Amino acid sequence: MASEPGAGETDELIDRKLQRSGQLHEAMAQTLALDDEGLEVIDLHGTDVATTAISLSMEHGDSLLVLMARGNPNTATATLRMQFESMLRGAWAIYAATEQDIEALERELTVEADAQARKVAVYGDMLKALRKEGCNAPRVLVDEVGRVDKVLRHSLNSFVHGGFQPLKRHSEGFPLPLVLQVIETSNAISTMAAALFAVLIADEGHRMSRLNALIPEYRDVLPELTIVQKHQAGG
Predict the structure, then answer these.
(1) Nearest-angstrom CA–CA distance, 70 and 174
(2) Contact 125, 113 (CB under 8 A)
(3) How far apart (Å, rounded) are the C-alpha atoms in residues 26 and 15?
(4) Could you report the per-residue pLDDT of 156-173, keeping only the tens digit for each?
(5) Rounded distance between C-alpha atoms, residue 210 and residue 2, angstroms
(6) How far apart are CA 59 and CA 179, in angstroms?
(7) What is the pLDDT of residues 52-83, one digit of tens each?
């Protein structure tokens, strides 16, 4: 029977996973090249909300790696829920949101506007809208989002709300396999967010192809997943 890794070996495994994850994030940023002066973004009614939500998701993904590096796995795991939901809102804004939904989220931030925005599709509503017949979201995107939701929703709720799981993990320790799983899942969500960015860029699918090519290279820091394939967002 294999023995449990010691503290030094555990730290090394986590550090290696974080280092490779950082390299993946950098590779995706270089592939997207969002600061390219010639960048042409597809103009949809949900483009602004989508790009903001996707960017926010990627910020959460970067922050999760920092939290893990600082030895704060419970807070990192709670951040995973924010990362996933921001990515989900980006996908919903591209493929399923109505013009009224988008208008509510594009208003100037006031107390009244905030109250109205809370009535716009929440977590479950966005999932349902993406799965609805007639929605042109890529099937692979809907399947991947559904898989993450099925596996993680209830446990992530516990971490966000200070429930049983984070209380026990904080007092008894956070298992190494779970640390590595959280990092890999976060990387998968970051990959999905990058793919959504690529969908909104008018480049004949070149960025999407390059993102797909990254998957085999970084398989060691990703769970089994299929990246979102190129799909005409306005089609």
Answers:
(1) 14
(2) no
(3) 16
(4) 999 999 999 999 999 999
(5) 39
(6) 19
(7) 999 999 999 999 999 999 999 999 999 999 99
Taking only the tens place, the pLDDT of each residue in 170-204 is: 999 999 999 999 999 999 999 999 999 999 999 99
Task: Report pTM.
Answer: 0.90
CA distance linking residue 174 with residue 230, whole number of Å: 38
Amino acid code (one letter) for 130? L
Amino acid at 151: V
**Per the structure block, which two tokens stand in for 120?**
């716009």
> Among candidates 200, 207, 196, 205, which has minimal Cα distance to 42?
200
Three-state helix/strand/coil letters over the chain: CCCCCCHHHHHHHHHHHHHHHHHHHHHHHHHHCCCCCCCCECCCCCHHHHHHHHHHHHHHHHHHHHHHHCCCHHHHHHHHHHHHHHHHHHHHHHHCCCHHHHHHHCCCCCHHHHHHHCCCCCHHHHHHHHHCCCCCCCHHHHHHHHHHHHHHHHHHHHHHCCCHHHHHHHHHCCCHHHHHHHHHHHHHHHHHHHHHHHHCECCCCHHHHHHHHHHHHCHHHCCCCCCCCCCCCCC
